[in-house]
Amino acid sequence: MLQLTEHPIQRQIIGLALSILAIVVVLVGIHTGFRSKANQIENQLDNQKARQEIGLSIYQRLFSAKASVFKLSTLDNRLELEVVKKRFDDNLMIIKEGLAILHNGGVFKDEIATNIPGQNSMNLVANYYLPESEGYVLEVLELGPAIHNLEEQAQLLYQLIKSRIDLFPNEPADLQVRIINLIKTINTILQRTQENAARILYDSQEKISHLSNEYKESESLYDSFRIPVVVIALGLSAYLLLVTLTRVGKVIENRKQAEDQLQLLLDTTVEGIFGVDNQGITTFVNPSASRMLGYSPEELINRGNHELIHHTRSDGSPYPASECCMLEVLKGGTVHTVDNELFWRKDGTSFPVEYSSNPIHRKGKIVGAVINFRDISDRKQAEKRIRTLLQAIEQSPVSVVMTDTNGNIEYVNRAFEITSGYEANEVLGKNPRILKSENTPAEHFKELWQAIVSGQPWRGELQNRKKNGDLYWERAYIAPVVDESGSTSHYLAVKEDISLQKQQEKKILHQANYDSLTNLPNRFLTLDRLSQIIKEAQRNQHMAAVLFLDLDDFKKVNDSMSHEAGDKLLIQAAKRLKDSVRIDDTVSRLGGDEFIILLGSLHTEKEVLPIAEKILNCFKPPFILDGRELILTASIGISIYPSDGDNPAELLRNADTAMYQSKEQGRNTFNFFTHEMNKGISRRLQVEEQLHGALERNEFQLYYQPILDIAKHEIIGAESLLRWHNPALGEVRPDEFIPITEQTGQIIPLGQFVIKQALCMTAQWQNQFGKPFKVAINISPRQFRDPNLVKQIKAALAQCRIPRNTVVLEITEGVLMSGHTYIDDALSELNNLGVTITMDDFGTGYSSLSYLRRYPFGNLKIDRSFINDITIDPADRELVNATIAMAHGLGITVVAEGVETEDQLNYLQQQDCDMAQGYLFSKPLPAEEMMQLLQKKQKLTTA
């Protein structure tokens, strides 16, 4: 039990009783003075009790303020800084209220935390009046300026720490030094003020003892009484004695209450408090300290404090008492507030504490110290969670931005700095609109603010601008941060950089709408644009045009020169087309070698003519492919809105129909759509439809046209020619169905059919007539690309058992133009088989004389276009003469096709042409008629 004094109250009572008996003759006036004196003592005792309670509250608040100052020095987070600063300011406010009442008098109220079960705090109410003697407020006069100075220094410390946090890691080099020096100054002020507060407690206790002694002076009151009034005086003295004894009892009770109140404060406070003497021996301990340490008070008192509870550091190393911060004040050291050390319990476990050590002075000497401490395990765990959360936010791959309610930035993480290019110190205090670009609609931001101001989160995409000016996309989640009262205190933005995703989306959208080879709009985008053009034409009562363009003989380039060469040609053609139209017109690639040109805002059909002519003219200059010149033409079909259709599908279909009409007219031209053209398209569709399954239905038949040895006038062979008779279409011309089979790929099975049928029929004729009768078979470029062609020919030769030297394979020059190695290999392998290779239609294509020398040709066939006018056109004669001479010079046999007159035959014979075929000798015949011809005539003449 903590006692306020050691003077025995009993001695005061006995002395007072003797004095009363001795002054029975004291005058009534002296007795009245005694009563007045007793009342004054009672009031002063009550006043000292209130003063003692106010001093205790000031002492505890100074301890809390000291802990807050230490905590301020360690903070690196703005939010925690504000919380600790407010806690410090609240303590100073209570201290200043207490000092004001000690200086001027009044009622003091405070709420002190306790550890009483079911009672977390205790209300303290003290009624204090200003004493007449100025000596009573000496400590107050000293504390007032010190507290004012402390408040100013703490405010300066807060500003310096705030600057350090805001400027980190670029704070001035001397900033930390200033903070440390300022903390030393504040600690000095706090030490001085706590000592003054302690003096208030001890001074109050001494004055309570002194007031009790003043009752002795009441004995002198009775000296003034005269003997005649002894009886009265004795009666009065007896009465006074009774009153005095009653009041002395009250003094004792008040003193007991003061002692109990002080003990209650020590017993119920949540903080651990214990005292040590100047040797570090524990002198007293409160219940909270005993409970937290796991020791009973008896186990702590009179034992070395440091060795018992403070012997080991947090890292497990020994903690010598000579280095103990808690005991440093015993040596006159600085008052410390420490929160990075451990106290050790009786069971050997430890817990983190925050403690403060304050010296006890008597007669100018340090006689001990009072230590306040608290278990900060929960706080340390919370701080760890906060640090972990801050680390997670700092290391998060998404940007995190926090602003106040006015939109001023208070925090950004590292991801924000990386994404935006701004350092944190460049944006703190500024509005996020510094990132705003002109590309995000204002309505977007209006919706954002409407949402968050109403307390709702907002999600959306923003296009912002980096510090260097680059634009970037972010997917943002912005929400208000609500405090304990339900009010919005901040706004939090979590943003993810989706620039790469946007680029991919843009790329995918481009790929979905544009041709990957030519970068022209594709079919999908073309139809969309055509729909827009039609709507605009309807609105403005204008016309529009669709030009359907197909490159003539483009397939030959693909077949003969490779698809890579074809792609290069398409790219060049696309560029020429774009350069030939108006800036607002659309050039698109429909697929393959088909292009679409969309023309809008037309007033008459005549406006299309110069554009169509310009497009055709753009193909006149030769194309350069791999160093070679190539002439390419185009066929164009034109449909007009609204006369040829009022929707994209109809306009495209009719333009396609007109394009096929241009093909029919010899190509390299354009045609406007007419309704009569649909008949031709219908015919083509019928042909395509009937071709499916025609081979299986045995609708194809081989015809043979004899080949004549000019010198001997003898049939030495025949060219096999495919004919098609369809029940629905009748006889279909080869030049009508062969191109379609080339496009559909049906030429491959048809080619196999022709090879097998021709070889087997020729073998039959050879066996019947006993002569080496030859057969010529046409091989298309598409067939030559078939890797199984040589195997198929070998298989047919073996199956039909025909001499290989009687088989002639005719190929056009287009097969050779690709220059692929597989062409060389196939020709070489066929030549090694003994099969004769003929260059067909020589002079009509992209002839290169080097082909004749490079490849193993046995025959060369002159096209009928040169034979037709050989007797009347000198140029044709010279070309034929040169061809025959050149071929013979290379050891190649010459065949002339399309011979229809005797004059033509005679001229060819004069020029030593080797062979001929044509209607002069025979038209193509079915196999049966060909056999009859061979039986009837072994030698043909013109007679």
Automatic annotation (TrEMBL):
PROSITE patterns: EAL, GGDEF, PAC, PAS. InterPro entries: Biofilm_reg_signaling, EAL_dom, EAL_sf, GGDEF_dom, Nucleotide_cyclase, PAC, PAS, PAS-assoc_C. It is an enzyme of class 3 (hydrolase). Its cofactor is Mg(2+). Its EC number is 3.1.4.52. One of its GO terms (molecular function) is cyclic-guanylate-specific phosphodiesterase activity. Residues 258-310, 382-431 form the PAS domain. It catalyses: 3',3'-c-di-GMP + H2O = 5'-phosphoguanylyl(3'->5')guanosine + H(+). Residues 542-675 form the GGDEF domain. GO terms for biological process: cellular response to nitric oxide; regulation of DNA-templated transcription. Signal peptide: none annotated. The chain crosses the membrane at residues 12-34. Keywords: c-di-GMP, Membrane, Transmembrane, Transmembrane helix. Residues 684-938 form the EAL domain. Residues 336-388, 458-510 form the PAC domain. NCBIfam families: GGDEF, sensory_box. This is cyclic-guanylate-specific phosphodiesterase. It comes from Candidatus Thiodiazotropha lotti. The lineage of its organism: Bacteria, Pseudomonadati, Pseudomonadota, Gammaproteobacteria, Chromatiales.
